[in-house]
Amino acid sequence: DSGVTQTPKHLITATGQRVTLRCSPRSGDLSVYWYQQSLDQGLQFLIQYYNGEERAKGNILERFSAQQFPDLHSELNLSSLELGDSALYFCASSDKDRASTDTQYFGPGTRLTVL
Amino acid sequence: AQTVTQSQPEMSVQEAETVTLSCTYDTSESDYYLFWYKQPPSRQMILVIRQEAYKQQNATENRFSVNFQKAAKSFSLKISDSQLGDAAMYFCAFNAGNMLTFGGGTRLMVKP
Predict the structure, then answer these.
(1) Collapsing DSSP states into helix, strand and coil, what is residue B84?
(2) Which of A46, A59, A79, B106 could form a cystine bridge with A34, CB 3.0-4.6 A?
(3) Proportion of chain A in helix, strand, coil states, percent, rounded to 5
(4) β-bridge mates for residue B96, sequence order
């Protein structure tokens, strides 16, 4: 158990809908990272927040957004869902701002299925 | 841009034997970490081992060790005394800046 929690574990929804994925980092960690794992794109970095502020953006679609709250939990919002958004979404946390000299610990993931 | 390449999509090893998974990366950074993560059928991403680029000594965690060749930008994972529970996808990852860049993964099968 990494100490990172994600809810829900599974999510099934229809095209065009909007969903929210939630992540709670390990105790003491200030950074939260979101990753998408799909069959055709592999594991890709989406976005990072550090202590409530956005720090880095990766291959995140404009239909997707995220935020980190004062209690440090983070939410990833996915809207106007398409079939291709079906994937496993991971949250990871670390205690530093800059990832290059830090270790990220992953949550169990949320499996999103868009029908 | 950082890239990570795992050239072996699948590997197979006999239980109790040793197997080495390959990984190469490309970066212009001088300060970074390298990781191997394991993803079993549960899909959880589990940290196996970490190597700091400034350290010349190869990292070791129990049955897992790495061969880090900084000049060659190579970072292979050796699993000794393979166990059935080692069967999983293994991802090499490179950490520079504010994100992890992953390789495509190697599926390891362990034969009893």
Answers:
(1) helix
(2) A46
(3) 5, 50, 45
(4) B99
